[in-house]
From TrEMBL, chain A:
Protein name from the UniProt record: ABC-2 type transport system permease protein
Membrane topology: Multi-pass membrane protein
Stretches assigned to the ABC-2 type transporter transmembrane domain: 16-211
Keyword 4Fe-4S: no
Highest taxon of source: Bacteria
InterPro entries from the UniProt entry: ABC2_TM, ABC_2_transport, Nod_factor_ABC_transporter
Species the sequence originates in: Paractinoplanes atraurantiacus
GO biological process, one term: response to antibiotic
A Gene Ontology term for the protein's cellular component: ATP-binding cassette (ABC) transporter complex
Pfam family, one: ABC2_membrane
Cellular compartment(s): Membrane
From TrEMBL, chain B:
Membrane topology (UniProt): Multi-pass membrane protein
UniProt protein name: ABC-2 type transport system permease protein
GO MF annotation, one: ABC-type transporter activity
GO terms under biological process: response to antibiotic
Keyword Membrane tagged: yes
Keyword Acyltransferase: no
Domain ABC-2 type transporter transmembrane span(s) in chain numbering: 25-213
Residue spans crossing the bilayer: 21-44, 56-79, 105-127, 139-160, 167-186, 231-248
Keywords on record: Antibiotic resistance, Membrane, Transmembrane, Transmembrane helix
Lineage summary: Bacteria, Bacillati, Actinomycetota, Actinomycetes, Micromonosporales
Cited Pfam families: ABC2_membrane
Automatic annotation (TrEMBL), chain C:
Protein's cellular compartments: Cell membrane
Organism in which the protein naturally occurs: Paractinoplanes atraurantiacus
Keywords attached to this entry: Antibiotic resistance, ATP-binding, Nucleotide-binding, Transport
A single Gene Ontology CC term: plasma membrane
Protein name, as recorded: ABC-2 type transport system ATP-binding protein
Length: 256, 261, 325
């Protein structure tokens, strides 16, 4: 009960802290809209005009992933810069419980991207927001956001030990977009990427949202996204404990 | 000679000082692996949607990858000086400010060129694109022109950083806009007219089209006009950066906001 | 709670390994703390005094579980700081100087709510406790403003409120008065004094002599990673026993004069401190030797200000201890 409260309060306050950063909000709103514009013209050039809503949703999900990726890496770096990393790691709590609210908050602020691309598509390109399964879309979006937040914990665990986590984050943006088929499922990728895609929660989250948008069996994808995310959460918990101890030994909590 | 030395030495030292927080691993990760993934992403997207062929995507995106190092580098050249509180010292130096800041751009542009070359080589090998050997000098030239123009473009953005607090918003958005507007990923005939027009005045656009001509085995003659236009765009930004720096410098001295961050 | 001591440090050592260089990385090792042993009684206000880089912060971070000692052991409230971190963390508060360590874009209230949750303050008590602490540190009425608009002193007081949320038995204060104006610093000292009076054990690091002298029951002088002296302020003052101090304000003391003075029989220490246009020359000498005449003779021809011969203070004792190290 007290754990749930901690997660809730922590997530809300971290989401508040991120949402008040002009930088974070500007990036979360503008960059995905540019990506979505790119997607719309790409889809048109490729003769896929009927899938423009998918393009808007896809670009939004790409934005959610960017937010989680840079957020989980960047948030810990930010905590370090603000000097709050030591303060929160010193709490008598499991380290994972301290970091998880931050990574979930980055998922939540990532939805700004999704909302922005949808609003932009509606207003500028007159894309009609007729989702095949509107209710399922909302559920899938929530699961996707929370799931990616849990995945973010696993990433964060790795990032705590590295002083310049952003660099690692930079390299992981495009491959995950690509392999998870966020904008459009890529059938022409080499065969070895198929199992990689299958274990990424991003693949199933993006797929659930696409199925809810243009029709398909949404729930199996939602369940898989949630299942894989829970496994990430579990592994994240274990790794985070070890990581914290190593960070105390290596003196990387403070920006000394 | 002394001028060149000031530009080269000053530029290199600043570059290392501003980058010294990165380890070689980080450098390779961010600036070599990241751009490669970017190229792969668009190349596969293009294959999937059958918008254009591999050469279009691979060559164009390889030239574009130079922009990452150049735009962020150029921005850093000004922004980090301010952040570390060294901007005042640089501006107070009696040597020509114009040369000092142009000098800052050179290592970033060189870095961009390196990234573009590596990305093109690895991308072409991975995706099986054959480029005629005779095209290589031309390609190198096109990428160098693109990198240089992009470096000055970055410097212009960095100069804007003197005026606006969140210079990184500007550079992040600029990098995203280059993806869209340079026609590297959507062929120009698929974009609305005004976007194409804006693209004409951005770096990379002409360098990418020159590079495509070279890669297609066409001679120097057919690529030369585009190459010339790229250099012109670069020169325009070089001038714009200096003018902006002068304006904002005067302004910030008056308002004493040089070292506020 | 079998232990009589709130804090026990036994031969703590800490080495930092750093990699520097970009093209040719070289590994360097720095011994920040080299064998520190001390105990702090329950309810005691204990000071760690030393120059910058002496190892004060490293020592504190080993005690408050943020750093694992390279060797040696430490217990807080009877619990091992390496193995029983959860028990230790429940009982300690940590406040450091400077303006980092807070969520700037959140209000003071949000900051305190968040940390109350993190530190496991019971939900029913949170509201009362937060109000109480806002009152104590004088931020009541401004708690809904964003921290980014706070002055340094206000941030420092918020830090203290945060450190006290879960009513810790042991409070670690790392240079709390750094960058705080004199009035705020005095208030801070009063708050710290009150805390100790109500039974909280306080470990304070500082390089302000007056602060340590006024507040601390006992002081450990630390320098080069080792404790050089430990005792009550009165005991430490004895390190300057048998001393006499001559202070001369002068304009333009030549280096040769200082060197000559250092060589005089009975002179232990000379120091020149620049204070604006004038220099303050301090000469420590054996009490039975009167060096004032020699000093004035060496400075003949130089414009002099106040000349003063006095008993040593804690500060002189501190200087003597640190420079003997």
């Amino acid at each position: 009960m007290s754990t749930l409260r901690l997660l809730l309060v922590g997530t809300l306050l971290h989401a508040k802290q991120i949402s008040r950063s002009p930088f974070e909000v500007a990036i979360a709103l503008v960059v995905p809209v540019v990506q979505a514009t790119l997607a719309v013209y790409l889809f048109r050039s490729g003769g896929e005009q009927h899938r423009l809503l998918e393009a808007a949703v896809g670009a939004g999900v790409m934005g959610v992933w960017s937010s989680v990726l840079f957020g989980s890496g960047g948030a810990i770096q930010n905590q370090r810069w603000q000097g709050t990393l030591e303060m929160i790691m010193m709490a008598p709590r499991r380290p994972a419980l301290v970091i998880l609210p931050i990574t979930i908050a980055t998922g939540i602020t990532g939805t700004y991207a999704l909302l922005a691309t949808l609003a932009w598509g509606r207003l500028l390109y007159g894309i009609r927001l007729d989702f095949a399964h509107p209710v399922a879309f909302v559920v899938a979006a929530v699961v996707c956001v929370v799931g990616l937040g849990m995945f973010g914990l696993l990433l964060a665990a790795t990032f705590v030990l590295m002083r310049n986590a952003n660099a690692l984050a930079n390299t992981l943006e495009y491959p995950v977009w690509l392999v998870s088929g966020m904008l459009v499922p890529i059938t022409v990728l080499p065969a070895w990427t198929v199992p990689v895609a299958a274990i990424l929660p991003t693949t199933w989250g993006a797929r659930a949202l696409r199925e809810a948008t243009s029709g398909g069996p949404v729930w199996p994808s939602v369940a898989l996204c949630l299942g894989i995310s829970l496994i990430c959460l579990l592994v994240g918990f274990l790794v985070m404990g070890r990581v914290e101890r190593r960070a105390r030994a290596a003196a990387t909590l403070a920006l000394a | 000679m002394k001028t060149i030395r000031l530009m080269a030495v000053g530029g290199t030292i600043a570059y290392r000082a501003l980058f010294n927080w990165t380890t070689p691993g980080m450098f390779v990760g961010t600036l070599l692996v990241g751009p490669l993934f970017q190229l792969l992403f668009f190349a596969y997207l293009g294959r999937q949607l059958q918008v254009a062929d591999d050469r279009f995507y691979i060559v164009g995106n390889a030239v574009l990858t130079a922009s990452l190092a150049c735009v962020f580098g150029g921005t850093m050249a000004v922004a980090n000086e301010r952040r570390y509180g060294t901007l005042g010292h640089v501006l107070l130096s009696p040597r020509s400010r114009t040369l000092i800041f142009w000098g800052r751009v050179l290592p970033y542009a060189g870095n961009g060129l390196l990234i573009a070359v590596v990305t093109l080589t690895v991308g072409a090998l991975l995706l099986g694109l054959r480029i005629p050997l005779s095209a290589l000098p031309g390609l190198l030239l096109a990428m160098a022109a693109g990198s240089l123009a992009c470096g000055f473009f970055g410097l212009t953005l960095g100069a804007l950083g003197l005026r606006f607090r969140d210079v990184w918003v500007i550079s992040n958005v600029a990098v995203a806009l280059l993806l869209l507007l340079t026609g590297v990923n959507v062929p120009a005939d698929g974009l609305p007219g005004w976007m194409v027009t804006v693209g004409q005045w951005l770096p990379i656009t002409h360098a990418a089209s020159a590079a495509r001509s070279f890669a297609a085995g066409e001679g120097f003659a057919s690529a030369a006009p585009a190459l010339g236009r790229e250099l012109l765009v670069g020169a325009v930004y070089a001038a714009a950066a200096v003018i902006l720096l002068k304006i904002f410098e005067t302004e910030s001295r008056r308002r004493a906001s040089l070292d506020t961050y | 709670m079998g232990s009589d001591y709130a804090i026990e440090a036994d031969d703590l050592r800490r080495t930092y390994r750093a990699r520097t260089g970009w093209l040719k990385p070289t590994r360097t090792e720095v011994e920040a703390v080299r064998g520190v042993t001390f105990e702090v009684g329950r309810g005691e206000l204990f000071g760690l005094l030393g120059p910058n880089g002496a190892g004060k912060t490293t020592t504190i971070k080993m005690l408050n579980t943020l750093l694992i000692p390279t060797s040696g052991t430490a217990r807080v409230g009877g619990f091992d700081v390496v193995k029983q971190t959860k028990q230790v963390r429940r009982r300690i508060g940590y406040v450091f100087g400077g303006d980092r360590g807070l969520y700037d874009r959140l209000s003071a209230l949000d900051n305190l709510r968040y940390f109350a949750e993190l530190y496991g303050v019971a939900p029913r008590e949170q509201k009362r406790r937060i109000a109480e602490l806002l009152d104590l540190v004088g931020l009541a009425g401004r708690e809904r403003e964003r921290v980014e608009g706070y002055s340094r002193g206000m941030r420092q007081r918020l830090h203290i409120a945060r450190g006290l949320l879960h009513s810790p038995d042991v409070l670690f204060l790392d240079e709390p008065s750094i960058g705080v104006d004199p009035v705020a610093a005095r208030e801070l000292r009063r708050t710290v004094g009150d805390l100790a009076a109500t039974g909280t054990t306080v470990l304070l690091t500082t390089h302000y002599m007056a602060e340590a002298d006024e507040l601390c029951d006992r002081i450990a002088v630390i320098s080069d990673g080792c404790i050089q002296a430990l005792g009550t302020p009165a005991e430490l003052r004895k390190h300057a026993d048998g001393f006499r101090v001559v202070e001369v304000e002068a304009y333009g003391v030549p280096d040769t004069a200082v060197d000559t003075l250092r060589g005089l029989p009975g002179v232990r220490e000379t120091a020149v401190e620049v204070k604006g246009a004038l220099q303050l020359l301090t000469v420590h000498s054996d009490a039975h030797v009167d060096v004032q005449g020699d000093v004035l003779r060496e400075l003949a021809g130089i414009r002099l200000g106040r000349v003063n011969s006095r008993e040593p203070t804690l500060e002189d004792a501190y200087v003597a201890i640190v420079s003997a190290a």
